[in-house]
User: Fold this.
Amino acid sequence: MKSWFLLSLLCFLSVITLAQTEKIILDTDLDSDVDDVGAIAMLHTLADHERVEILGIIVTSNDLFAPQCADVLNHYFKRPTIPIGVEKGIPLENASKYTKALTQAFPHRLQNYDDAEDAIQLYRKLLAAEPDSSVTIVTIGHLTNLRHLIESAPDAISELSGLELIEKKVKLWACMGGQFPEGKEANFYRPDPESTKIAVDQWPGRVIYSGWEIGNNIITGGTYLKKSLSPASPVYMGYERYNDFAGRQSWDQSILLYLISPDSYWNLSPSGKALVREDGSNAWKRDEGAHQQYLTEKTPPRELAKIIDALMVGIYRDGF
Ligand SMILES: [Ca+2]
Assistant:
């Protein structure tokens, strides 16, 4: 009995010791699809259990209510001071099924799109303040703001260029985007394939891609979510407005699950580099000296869906 107890204690302690708190900047196109809402809900569950620290949220979207909607989610999950950045000076619209409704229904700090910070300044400020090689940038949308970070010049925030800041501060770019080993996926081709090509070609460090094929078979946000969430939750309202809990692919949540448990649920491709064409489609070139890899399937998608659904409703198990 005693040895069983000691063994259990050792296993528990090893899980605690191994679990790192990942410093994350999330770059999201919180507008057209609802998996961004699911990913942000999941991120807050992980923050509740100190698996991640959310440094900031970059909203890469032309949706008039997207930054306020991110702010709504941060307020609901009791992190109302998370800084939010947007691309300034762009034409705005509201085509989202849920951003306006959430903004009107729930408390938030930002009253207008332009109350959010400038995305490039925020990216630079957040990176400059962190220790070397400590930040993971997670992109779950298109790459316009990331491209602008790469191309940013030294300024009052940092004497380093954007590329130098990335080299010094970022340990990983975790990217939901592309289709592997070859294909055409929306984050890469719509609406800004030029920025995709620049970001992928010029990125100086390690990249892990979760391609379209990974999240496409993982269906979450259905009946389980409806039963498990309070109707007073903005996550509930988001999924209700989007497709009334008919279930949705989990492209954006998948890269987060990989991040907190990199050895568990997927295999990694051999090292190489994504080759982005002008139309945003991509291929793959194997290269042992390169620092990019993409996820390949290992765990049945139905199992992954259960884990992601649980994390989206706030349930966390040790050992993820
Ligand atoms: Ca997205």
